[in-house]
Amino acid sequence: MVAVRGRPTLVRICDLAGRPRGAGVPVDDLGTLVTTHEAVEGLGRAVVHAPCGRTFVAGSGDITPVPEWNLALVRTEGLASVPWVIAAERPRPGGAVDVLTPDGPLRTAVTGTTAVTYTSTDRYHPLQQVLQLDLPEAVRVQLRLSRPASGAPVVDAGTGAVLALLGTALHAPDRSCGFAVPLYAAGVLAPDGPLAAVLRRNGATVPGFGPDLNLAGALHLTATSAGPAVERCARAVDRPEVARELDAFGRGPASVLALVGEPGTGRTTELAALAARRAQGPEPAPTVWLRGAELRAEDDSVREAVGRTLAAAGRIVAASQQGAGAGVLVGEPGGANPDVVARLARLAGRPLLVVLDAPEEMPPQLAHRLRRWAAGTASWLRACGARMALACRPEFWERAGALLPPEMLYGPAAGPGQELPGRGVGEQKGEESEVPEPAGRPVSGGGVPGGPGLPGCVRLGGLTGPQAARARAVHGVAEGALRPGDDGHPLVLRMAGAVRAAQGGAAPEGGAAAGAPRRAEVFSAHLDLLSLRIAERLVGGGRAPGEVRRLAARVCGQVHEAARRSLGPGLGQLDRAVFEELFPWNGGWASAVLAEGLLAPAGDGYRFADEEFADWLQGAHLELDGALDALVHHRSTATVVPVPRHRIGPVVQALLLCDARDGSQMLAPRLRRLVDRLAEGRRAPAEAAPGDEHGTGAGPERDGDGDENGDKNGDKNGDGEDARAESLWWAAHLLGETLLRVPDARPYLRVLHALAERVADPAGDDVSRSGFGPWFWRALPLRPAEKAELLRVLLPADPPYTGASGRAERCLDVLAALLRDEPRALQPLLCEWFDDTRPLRERTDGPAVPGRNGGAERSGARSGSRAVPGAARPTVADAAQALLYTHRGGAVDELVEALVRAAHPRADALLAELVPEEPSALCRAVERWARDPREGRRVAAAVYGPRLARRVRGEEERALLRRAALFLLRGSADGSLHDCALALLVRDPVSRGHHLDRALARFAVSGHGELAVALGLASATHPEPVFDAFRAVLLAAPEGGEDVSPAVQQQTLRALAEVGTPAPARRAAALAGEYAARCPGRAREAVAAFVRRRPVRGPAARAVLRPMVTELLRDQRVPFRAGLARELGRGAGPVRDELLDLLLVTERELPVLREALRAVVHTLADGRTAATAATADAPDTADRAGTTGTTRGPEAVGEARAGRWGDGRLVCRIGQRMACRAEGAAPFDQELTALAGELPGLGAAVRAWAAGAPGEWAALAGPGIRRLLGTGPSESVPEAGTPAGAAVGSAEA
């Protein structure tokens, strides 16, 4: 019926002379009064008298007239008035009302509404919907003549809420009744006016119930349900990242938020903190708190549970009003309609929030038809504008979230299922532990908990480092008192703090050798503590300690029995009969257990207050093999209600207990059976179980509505498919949970290898692939090297790299992170992968990106790029090589040692890559290797020392190389090592003078290439001895002699080509010419290469090379000149062009011109420019060729072929020179046509050249060229702009 706060006050309004003008009604906590306009009209100031004797003088600025409704608002201060509840809209006028006049209340009735006229001093005001009061004529006359009665409230006789204010200056044709101005109607018809604002404030601050339920009343009711939960967060540590997401949900359009996390992570606490913020903000918002146990099997949506909670809250409010002695008759409050409460909150812009904590506790029958309940809940939330926040386990949300419309779900900006920042279990490393602690649940879930695929939700992990430190301070737990992972777990911190406080500050007993207890030991200590406290409550004071301990042991036994009994059909809950049997009310057992918070009421029964603690207790009493047989191996399809997935906790705890109690030799076979079950359940993704919207392969339990929504007999095939899907789900989750939570997973490496092979199997299903993603392998409690070996098995199944932002994590990413964190442990291991040729997966879209030398790109990101046709697919070895290169920064010296120890071609190639990238580290390594007595290390020093000497410029690196060279000279009798050592010493200006003579003597014997190059550089400072040695090598034997190897002579000419100082360069050219004259047959290729190399040394070489080339072209025979023409055609740059012009001016022999033509055309086909030629002909070409191979990929070649052919003038000049012979242009025509058949794009280039210079090409166009140009035998070459030439330059297909 009614519930009105306190005793409302009625105030009197007078003028300054003390004459009464009317009455006023307080309507809010700010002291605002509502009265009639006639009561304050004409008053500059009004005097307001409260019943308590206080007075307030309201000036003109305090009065807000509303004459169009004969109303006025008066602002007052200090009257201590109690506001009235303004009645809500009445469906139809009628019913008994009381008119509260100064002379006392008058009982009357509302007969209807009418239109009246209010006459103020300045105009007439027509009023609509004014209430008609059935008053006797005498009373009407008396009230009309009574100024104090103006503004008297007309209240509902049943509720006491104000309906209207009595007006004495209202006129109507029918004078047989009294008139009252309705406040609600006046506010509705002017929603932007001052009266509407006051009425909204009244509804938000003055609680009304029953038919006059308003927002304040709704807040009062909902605070009753959420109050106990809010008290729980009093000692909670602030988690800003969680609060930010929860508050964003309140501002956003989503209707459902799921706070998903493991038991004990603070889900309930965070939702309680949200309810507290909503209740204590500047604009309080209503929050209804529910637990899953409060739901009933017959509920169609959450609306029914909200209605029951509001009804219970109404009874509590009524009882509190009566117990407070306020003197206000409340009556029977009845149940508040949840639709009305939600509508009031929505209209006020403060949507009703329904918090459903632990929805897993819902009755099994309701869980069996969860689909219908979810649909009804979504419909109700949409209809009334309410919102719902759930705190649940991942297993429950995996199913329930899939049954709700995706657009209603809230997910943070990072994406669905994203975990909020926080330190996961085990992210801190224990200094005294060889194996990292288990890393618990990772970022997002699906497959097994934590994997990808959960519907939109906010994931909750452990506390971050600063948060955990604050929590330890709150609970009095010293840093380091708990194991890494547990020291950020809210439940463990709370329990450990309670145990520590009970022990007087001492750390809990037991634990590992490191001194910190495991989580199970904290739970055990907590149980002992609660048992002791309950025993103390039962015995009271004055009992012997031994008696208390014996009673505590009995209590502990009863608690264990309660855990065993809760494993039955109750699914974690004790019914009242069992609870009273174990903890009878007689003797205070039940009261003591409930008072200590061990168990708590839940629906029609009782549950353990802490879910994770309950899982641990129940797992100790679970018959493990029977549970695995029922859930995984021999699951029965006849089960009426399947075991809910969220009941996985006790089974996991039983598996962990098996590891702790019986050892890995008992647990490993059970885990291997789970892996085998996954293999037995292999199926294609297309056969996904019904309801498996996320492709996890684990469809939800059947919703049990088949008897009403389908065939009553059910679909046997569908039942079998659902049973198999459930079996796979349980196998995957139990396996994943257990392997993540065991203290050390090393005893289960065989199981993990079998699982990795199962996941990497291309024929596998999505259950394994999505359930055991990269997050799982990263979180395993293993050493980095052991994780890396498992990831090696998985790499071929890794998805290809896409480069897209927000892409899913890959095993390659986890491996890269491990390598960054532990480079010294993983570098030798990755070097062992260089023989692993298993291919990686390739992209089927995106641009083609070539590998380098058949390998992966440096960054490792290209390993999944779309393959170039004909190119080798990247392999695991390529990935290892790329990872070592990319993540070398943490331990370069160790990487170099690992590579040289590997003695593999890939390791050699990577070392060569590091020469220009990490010269300092390589210099240090060369110095170490030179001192090493092992022959392989010395050889490595001899190989990489000269390569480094070409690049290093710092004195520190040079000093390292000098020391390395001296060690090689002293510590080995190998001549080749001495050659490299002397090359290092001669290259260095500091040591050159001391070792030049020895180097020259050694060169005369060996002719070593590195030593030759070093001596060439020494010619700038010691020209005479160097050139004498070179002359001895080049001119020592006549042509055809075998005293000196041709290879040695070629190395000598190469060294001479590197001489850059002008004076020695001229001597080098003269010596090369002398060698050509002495031994033309042997010198042909070497001297030609010398000529090709010299132009890249700069314009100063022109003066050296031109005389030499002129002499060679004049004196040498055709084969020699042909080789020279080939090398000149392969070059680039102005010096090359000038020398080639010199050849064309004097040359008439067809073989020579043919070689020049082929070389020039091939150079154009390769897109060769002066810059590329300079790079290719640089001194370190051999060094580069031994490491990376070709430097240009297919992109560069394709670009050259498409548009880098040039204008063809040089080709035309060669053709003109060839046409000067007796054969005419026929040889040129034949040669160019043959080249066009070899080189794609040349035909289009010839057409472009001919269109650009038609006159010059007309004389050269034979039958073959005309076919290339697309003209007949008698047609002329097309000119630019003609139809035939319009297509010139287009690329060939």
Under CATH at level 1, the class of the domain at 11-212 stands as Mainly Beta
Q: Helix share of residues?
A: 40-55%
| Approximate strand percentage | 5-15%
Sequence of strands across the biggest β-sheet: 5-4-1-2-3-7-6
Helix/strand/pairing category: alpha+beta
Q: What is the count of β-strands? A: 23
CATH architecture of the domain at 11-212: Beta Barrel
What is the tally of helical segments? 56
Low-confidence stretches: 1-6, 413-452, 508-513, 683-704, 706-716, 846-870, 1168-1203, 1272-1293
Rg measurement, Å: 47 Å
Shape: elongated
Distance between the termini: 89 Å
Q: Major sheet, described briefly?
A: 7 strands, antiparallel
CATH topology of the domain at 11-212: Thrombin, subunit H
The average pLDDT score comes to 79
